[in-house]
Amino acid sequence: MSLSKTSRRLVALSVVAAAALAPAAAGAQAKPLQGQVVKIVRIDPMSGLLGPVGISQRKGYEFFAEKFSASNPAGVKFEMSFIDNKLSPAETLNALKAATDQGIRYIIQGNGSSVALALVDAINKYNERNPGKEVIYLNDAAVDPDLTNGKCSFWHFRFDADTSMKIEAMTTFMKDQKDIQKVYLLNQNYSHGHQIAAFTRENLARKRPDVKIVGEDYHPLAQTRDFAPYIAKIKAAGADTVVTGNWGSDLTLLIKAANEGGYTGKFYTYYAGVTGTPTAMGTNGADRVYQIAYNHYNMGGQMEAWMKEFRQKYNDDFYTGSTIRIFEGLGNAMAKARSTDPVKVAQALEGLSWKTFNGEVEMRKTDHQLQQPLYLSVWEKASAKYPYSPENTGMTLVPVREFPNYVSSTPTSCQMKRP
Q1: How far is residue 353's CA from residue 363's CA, in Å, rounded to a whole number?
Q2: Alpha helices of 3-84 — where are they, by DSSP H?
Q3: What's the pLDDT tens digit per position in 399-409?
Q4: Domain total of the chain
Q5: Residue 101: its H or E element
Q6: Domain that residue 353 falls in
Q7: Are residues 135 and 271 in the same domain?
Q8: Which residues are paired to 24 by β-bridges?
């Protein structure tokens, strides 16, 4: 049956109207929480010997909160605040109470696994006592494997790679380095340092049983100002390689003492690219300081553009890539949950996968450990191929080996209790 001229006009108008409404509907579906504000607090040291690390990371959170507030799948706005915990578990618990009293339901922390373990315990208890007011703990740097094994929690999500993952990748590289014969383990005297030593021993015994551990030392966290006595012990032991998880001033001063003390062996580290350490390494660290991490200074692409903009804005170097993944993870999980409620967001974040600056990552549902690529890089002179030079040293971290997710992944013993 043919339509009248008037009917055809009405049909055409309805099609035009539907087409006009379609983008709005699609936009509403893509941005289900448009304009909602998500308040987040980061509790970490911003004073003392390790303060420079926390201050640099604060800039990163301010920078990327703005970037991801402007564009994320949920359409939310991220509002950051910061509390200096002075690297103290007691100060951290006071900060947690202050945050929850203000109604903040998203907590970020990372510097110090001893602090992280106390925080997980406190959040578990708080959430049990306060149904309907639950908080989520987003871990950007505390790498003690216990946090996603025996002490795993539904409320905790780790965006860094844990020590078992990093040592698995690092020793996979080390096993093929025939010049490594005598290894010295030097670490900070808390859970993080002890885990690094234990996993290094275990992995080298399995992959390179001919390698000898010629020394093992621990020193107080962020208290040692002179590492010359440790360097003397390392040299006396005949170590050709040092494995250390030191960070902040504890790595900066260690490298400085090694250079001044004439130690020419290699260092395998986690945090060579962190504030202060590039300057301490200088040209003396060339070809002998290695870093295992989930990113490096020469990632290229979007990361390169962000780092250039960050440096121009703050006259500082951005290196804590987990900052980006936290905002990505929250934006995607909130869009999926169509909610900013922490319980629903946690459920949506479990098992979530997304593409980030270096490929596909997945928040493993079993233990809330992010599965991600890792990179072994070495300190060398900057070049046209690898141009980014931290702290204007003329040097950079050059990628030597990439370990895809399935290589860096390690099993978990987590038996998670869910609400």
Answers
A1: 6
A2: 5-30, 51-70
A3: 999 999 999 99
A4: 2
A5: helix 89-101
A6: 37-161+300-372
A7: no
A8: none
* Cα separation values, 228 from 100, 143, 266, 270, 307, Å: 44, 27, 16, 21, 34
12 touches 78 (CB < 8 A) = no
Under 8 Å between Cβ of 298 and 386: yes
* Contacts of residue 181, Cβ cutoff 8 Å, sequence gap at least 6: 210, 211, 212, 240
- Phi-psi region at 363: left, alpha or beta (left = phi > 0; alpha = psi -120 to 50): beta
Dihedral angle, C-alpha 238, 376, 219, 153, nearest 10 °: -140
Q: pLDDT tens for residues 44-64?
A: 999 998 899 999 999 999 999
- Residues pairing with 402 in the sheet: 375
pTM above 0.85, yes or no: yes
Q: Are residues 140 and 261 in the same domain?
A: no
Query: pLDDT band at residue 358, thresholds of 50, 70 and 90?
Result: confident
Give the helix ranges, DSSP H, for 239-356.
249-260, 277-281, 301-314, 322-337, 342-349
